[in-house]
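REVIEWER CHECKLIST
Item 1: Sequence provided? yes
Item 2: Single chain? yes
Item 3: Sequence as submitted:
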Amino acid sequence: MTTHSDWKLFFDNHAPVYMDNVFARNTLAEVDFLVQHLHLRPGMRILDIGCGTGRHDVELARRGFDVTGIDLSASMLAEARKAADAEGVRCRFVECDATRYEPDRSYDAAICLCEGAFCLLGQGDDPIGRDLSILRNLAASLVSGGRLMLTTLNAARMIRAFDKPGSTGQFDLTTLVQTGTFNAGSPDKPVQVTLRERMYVAGELNLMCRMAGLSVDHIGGGTAGNWALRPIDPDEFELMLLAHKE
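Item 4: Structure as written out by the authors:
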């Protein structure tokens, strides 16, 4: 059984500097987007799978939502709790592997953003089965009509770049999985880990949602820092999925 030890090691070491990432600087506008397109009203219950440092959760809680954040990394959750305490808001944070999460309540909406859980393969994970289990857990958590927003890596970008000179990393065209070595620590204390990331094309996401019991409302471009309901750009870094449970 996969323990996702490599991803846990990465995020446990990366947690103190996670908020320094460029993609983490647009939280207020992103939460505005979530409120609008998930049709959120204060008091609603919201589930965040792969919540990381809780940047969306804390802002949602500040706006009056009942938020539960799930993450594999204890260090990321420690940062999330500090952020919630600093803002004087209450969030429910749970340390758990997203593939094994069993909701103990139902939610009006769910989010899974910035590859916090989706796309992140352990060394022994099936490239389809792992993320399908996360989608099924998300569907199981939602009330009838509950909405989901998910962002994921865009496989078209890697496919188009596959034969270009200077491409780096190992990308498998048969599984759409990229394998690479990353530094999980700080520059003065590097920690090297080998990680696997699954990428997606729109048709595959649509099929997996159907298998999980979700109806797709929109699949388009959605790279962090530039969210909008727009068509897919093949060279874009991320895709955005909006769906709901019947």
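Item 5: Key structural point noted by reviewer: The first helix runs from residue 5 to 14.
Item 6: Recommendation: ____
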